[in-house]
Amino acid sequence: MSQPRTLGELKRAGVTAPSPGVKEEMRKNLLAKLRRKETLFPGVLGYEETVIPQVVNALLSRHNMILLGLRGQAKSRLLRSLTTLLDPALPVVAGSEIHDDPFRPLSQWAREQLARLGDETPIAWLAPDDRFVEKLATPDVTIADIIGDVDPIRAARGGHDLGSELTMHYGLLPRAHRGIFALNELPDLAGRIQVGLFNILQEGDVQIKGYPVRLPLDLCLVFTANPEDYTARGKIITPLKDRIGSEIRTHYPTTLEQGVAITEQEAWTKRGANVVVPRYVREVVEGAAFAARRDKKVDKRSGVSQRLPITALENAVSNAERRAVLYGEALVVPRISDVYAALPSLTGKFELEYEGELVGAERVARDLIREAVGEVFSTALGTVNFRAVVSFFEGGSTLRLSDEAPSEDVLAQLRGVPELLAHTGRLGVRPGDAAPLVVAAGEFILEGLWAQKKIGRSDDKGFVAVERPREPELDLERLERIRNMKKQVN
Fold first, then answer.
1. What is the pLDDT of residues 308-330, one digit of tens each?
2. Residue 1, in any domain of the structure
3. Which is higher by pLDDT, 55 or 470?
4. Do 414 and 402 meet the contact criterion of CB atoms below 8 Å apart?
5. How many CB atoms lie within 10 A of CB 221?
6. Burial class (CB in 10 A: 0-12, 13-18, 19+), 331
7. Total structural domains in the chain?
8. Which among 54, 153, 243, 313 could bridge 267 via Cys, Cβ 3.0 to 4.6 Å?
9. Do residue 180 and residue 266 come from a single domain?
């Protein structure tokens, strides 16, 4: 059945009263989803027991809200997911700049249109995405951008008096009428502009400069911000914070499993059936982000975005893909050496403290990867006895592997290490698997032994025996003098 195209058709379809308001609409649809036990915000992972219940409570309370959290915590994605709580279609007066309700018009233009055409007034329909207005707060944003101003050009072209409502230039808030208005990075908004939001948050209306008209806008206002102790560029003024109904803190994934799931969802690794990313590689990439968030050399106030493991995994797969193309290999399998090759995706994702600046971002990133390898190795292979492998290097043997070498060549090198490949089954490698899968597992074992300081590694020789501190040589003459001194004392 087609949607009504005029006010008369809308009335005959049974719609005869103004809509109840966007917050009531979202509340109604949210309650329906809860009853049906549907996923509320698809694609937002890791917040099921923390952030999402708080967001639900805020929406059920018909609150405006702010999400406070460090970068890369899915704040914007969560806000954009709120459109799933809007009705599939909303009737508005066709041509209205502020989505006027045909039964409760705000603008003078819509009122005149309805008075002139009556039931023949054209009706348009808005989809949920059309009712979401988003703005990034910057210091150059003005009151005219957010609320509106006088438009002298419109007055001149239409022959209107400057005091006429028909000369209003509507800002983003009025244009979001009957929808959701999202303002990202609220502290970056100048204080005098934040003051302009007082009325809409408390009284629910705005007044455009120069007009004795208050517009009772129907809005759900949502904001995002970094914690104020980090955002030195500005802050949220106290009276504005007081008017925001709910303040909700976001966070990074709390478990490695959550992080792996988020990165798997977001990272572009499904480039064909010939790309296989081993689980331990995913865990190492994610573990590097977890290690960065607790490392003393990394600035905690800045945070380590979830974009770090996402881009690092994509880069690691790309390095493996490049190698496979160069050597004509059918299977693309990233190794731990490919994770090290993805350093450009790590070094720009965190800010360093003074101690970190001294050693450099690349060294810090390498240490984070090594730490992550050690932790994943302990979980997957911590109970396995690798004495034969360690003895191989202690006997003077060395092994230099390259991420640029084809898999068959590296596999031949790994087979020369006693019992190394015998334990790859613990990593999901089955007898007869392709060389890239076996090589990736074997290299991971060596990297894990190095991370646990059971073997060493040098730039020129590759994997070697770990250097043991030598016992200091005895100074026999000095010992004899000490004995003589003790005899004299006695």
1. 999 999 999 999 999 999 999 99
2. no
3. 55
4. no
5. 22
6. middle
7. 2
8. 313
9. no
